């Protein structure tokens, strides 16, 4: 059986395999998510012969979560996750970046927005002391927007499932409205014995160039956002 895991509240339930990769609505909080393969049906270790895997799914409708979805368009976000076996961790959910209204920083004079992603992942057979996720964003025109970075420094047990929830401030309302796709991947890990292992950049570049041929290896590195960006 496949499984649905809500990216907002974490609710999970089994569904038929024919729905894998399709959008579904959480019965508890009504957030849209994507049906994924059951974690139990996926390989549970990170042996060296496992091939890199790219998974794609339709995400939420275009628009800004918590404010207004674009009801005049049938377009949906495209979410991509890349599992590179050499970094010894993998995604359990095909989750992607959304844009959301930031009520905490907004006022009647100005509005603030966030990039947000909530995803579940599983560690490999080696204990880790740190892991870094990156998410590449693209707009409806196929242009690269931001390279978002989230590092977690903690003792990570082998073959253990984790939920992560990250946010990044977004200064442009237009950028929030035009956000259309994201690519998520584990950029690097630090093993418990101090070894740093990085993802295969060529693997990420090939997938990013599906959206724009202008994407370069330099774009994989996060850059500090500005109010003019």
Would you mind describing this structure in some detail?
- There is one protein chain.
- A hairpin with a 6-residue loop joins strand 3 and strand 4.
- About 5% of the residues have low confidence.
- Helices cover 6% and strands 46% of the residues.
- It has two domains: 38 residues; 165 residues, no CATH class.
- Strands 5, 8, 12, 13, 15 and 16 form a six-stranded mixed beta sheet that branches. A four-stranded antiparallel beta sheet has the order 2-1-4-3, with no helix packed on it. Strands 9, 10, 11 and 14 form a four-stranded antiparallel beta sheet that branches.
- The radius of gyration is 17 Å and the shape is globular.
- The protein has 229 residues and is mostly beta strands.
- The protein contains two helices and 16 strands.
Secondary structure elements and their pairing?
Elements: E1 2-5, E2 12-15, E3 23-25, E4 32-36, E5 53-61, E6 63-64, E7 68-69, E8 76-83, E9 89-91, E10 98-101, E11 113-123, E12 128-139, E13 144-156, E14 161-170, H1 173-178, E15 179-191, E16 196-198, H2 201-208
Parallel strand pairs: 8-15
Antiparallel strand pairs: 1-2, 1-4, 3-4, 5-8, 6-7, 9-11, 10-11, 11-14, 12-13, 12-15, 15-16
